[in-house]
Specification:
CATH topology of the largest domain: Heat Shock Protein 90
Radius of gyration: 24 Å
Helix content: 40-55%
Largest sheet: 5 strands, mixed
Oligomer: single chain
CATH class of the largest domain: Alpha Beta
Number of helices: 11
Strand order of the largest sheet: 6-8-11-13-12
Distance between the termini: 35 Å
């Protein structure tokens, strides 16, 4: 939020992250001096003052420290207080991801359908191979049984992989209901602590005032469990800390290429203190069959991304050595939803 001359009056967390400085260092600075390389923002403020209406800047180039990239910028007078302007900055990389996601959705459905069919056809003979190997083992020496045990183990591993592939074939829309996100986080944490995350320490940083969300309870539980499992695997056998954090960001809104969208003010963060994700992997982690781990299938995060997309929600990633954060941005349950 700025005054009519462009002086920053307030900023949200997204602005702090974009410009890599806290809000106290942004207040009182002229946004034209700290955001754009050229004079486009100065011109936009002038137009907004003269026209008393919204102004849009396409592909403005940000200065180093403010992302050093292209962004779309919108300025609009605040209703009831025309002496203040609301400034929205959307890096082009986000708009591109949304557009690409819409463009490939049809092709993805075809590929998913083919993968589901192949998975079903492969699982049937694998069951026969596993059964035959187990019968064969009964007539072999203990030394020779090591080979049949290997056949059984590898067959089961392939079946587990195929079952993950088949999950992508469920293209039914989410069965949404009103859900308390903290209840889901608690359930996911308890399940993790009894299983794969026994060596991990959990910390909760919750905003108790958060309203309920409107999601598919079981799909969102799967998202949270997959992200906790990913954090556990990143920490390694020595264990580590997973921080579960919730907050509210009134200004966040997802808008698709067709102009439709919804507000996503509920923020859920799953943070680990592992080694971080390699920079060359960050842009690909949500793609199917992409994994930075030796025995990873590359399907866990892809499934997470699919579920979030089906909800019209958003997932983002910020990773550096010692800290990886997956942020989920979710809708609020409105009156009349059940």
């Amino acid at each position: 939020v700025t005054d009519r001359s462009g002086l920053v009056l307030d900023a949200n967390t997204g602005a702090e992250l974009l410009m890599n400085r806290p809000v106290r260092r942004l207040k009182g600075r002229n946004l034209s001096d700290i955001l754009c390389k050229d004079n486009s923002l100065i011109t936009a403020f002038s137009r907004a003052r003269d026209d008393h209406g919204p102004v849009y800047i396409s592909k403005a180039t940000l200065i180093p420290g403010a992302g050093d990239e292209d962004a779309d910028i919108q300025l609009a007078p605040i209703v009831g207080d025309e002496n203040r302007l609301l400034v929205l900055v959307q890096p082009r990389r986000f708009a591109g991801k949304i557009g690409r996601g819409e463009a490939v959705k049809s092709a993805a459905r075809s590929a998913i359908g083919m993968a589901e069919m192949l998975a079903h056809e492969i699982k049937n003979p694998l069951a026969g191979i596993t059964g035959a190997a187990q019968l064969l083992a009964m007539s072999l020496s203990r030394q020779d049984q090591e080979l049949t045990d290997l056949i059984v183990a590898e067959s089961r591993r392939i079946v587990a992989l195929l079952e993950q592939v088949e999950q992508f074939g469920n293209l039914q829309p989410p069965a949404r209901k009103v859900v308390n996100i903290h209840d889901l986080l608690d359930r996911a944490q308890k399940s993790a602590e009894l299983g794969f995350a026994r060596n991990m320490r959990f910390e909760q940083v919750y905003d108790p005032s958060l309203p309920a969300t409107f999601v598919d309870e079981f799909q969102m539980l799967q998202v949270l469990q997959n992200l906790m499992k990913n954090a556990t695997e990143a920490a390694g056998p020595g264990g580590g800390t997973i921080t579960l954090k919730t907050s509210y960001d009134q200004g966040l809104r997802m808008r698709a290429a067709n102009g439709q969208g919804q507000k996503l003010p509920l923020q859920v963060e799953i943070i680990d203190n592992g080694p971080g994700i390699a920079p060359d992997m960050v842009a690909q982690v949500f793609e199917p069959f992409v994994s930075g781990r030796e025995n990873g299938t590359g399907l866990g995060l892809a499934l997470v991304s699919k579920i979030m997309a089906d909800h019209g929600a958003w997932i983002s990633l910020d990773s550096a050595p010692g800290r990886t954060c997956f942020r989920l941005s979710l809708p609020v349950a409105t009156e009349g939803t059940e």
